[in-house]
Amino acid sequence: MKTIVRLLLGSTAVLLATLFGTVAQASELSDQMIRDARQSCAANQDGQLGYQPGTIRVIDLNRDGIEDEIVDESTYSCTSSASQFCDATGCGLKVIVNSQVLERHVRQWQIIDWDSDRMLLLSLHGSYCGTQATHGCYEAITWVEGGFRSVRR
């Protein structure tokens, strides 16, 4: 009987997390980012923020054994503004590693494992790289000696 109650409570917690967009592993910093997005949306004609459970991706980016987070604003929607978080140039992306935050406006992103390194590859609008918008560019980001390192081309 106790096992059934535990299973029901666990299932209820997962359901609530899915419905309300909370993530059990989310840090206070990423939770604050979502609260800020909610306030920003509300400030725009009392809009309501919607987002997917996959908004926060938890992964060990710098391979130090501690989970890091990526907050993907492409999953956001604001009822009062279609372009609040995404526009023709891309969407907001926030990367949290050891309480350091890296913010970019990206078209797409992907994590790449290369030998013992883990990189974040970003597709950016050309205006972020001094080239034509239609061409775009890329940025590769990794974490070395306690900080973000990147190359953009």
Task: Give an overview in words.
Helices cover 23% and strands 39% of the residues. The chain is of the alpha+beta class. The protein is flat, with a radius of gyration of 18 Å. The relative contact order is 0.12. Residues 1-26 form the signal peptide. Keywords: Signal.
Work out the helix count.
2
How many strands appear in the DSSP assignment? Answer: 11
User: Structural class given helices, strands, pairing?
Assistant: alpha+beta
Number of domains: 1
Signal peptide: 1-26
Keywords: Signal
What are the key terms here?
153 residues, alpha+beta, four-stranded antiparallel beta sheet, 11 strands, flat, signal
Ordered list of secondary-structure elements with their pairings:
Layout: H1 2-20, H2 28-43, E1 49-50, E2 56-59, E3 68-72, E4 77-78, E5 86-87, E6 90-97, E7 100-106, E8 108-114, E9 117-124, E10 137-144, E11 147-152
Antiparallel strand pairs: 1-4, 2-3, 3-6, 5-6, 6-7, 8-9, 9-10, 10-11
Short description:
Residues 1-26 form the signal peptide. This protein is 23% helix and 39% strand.
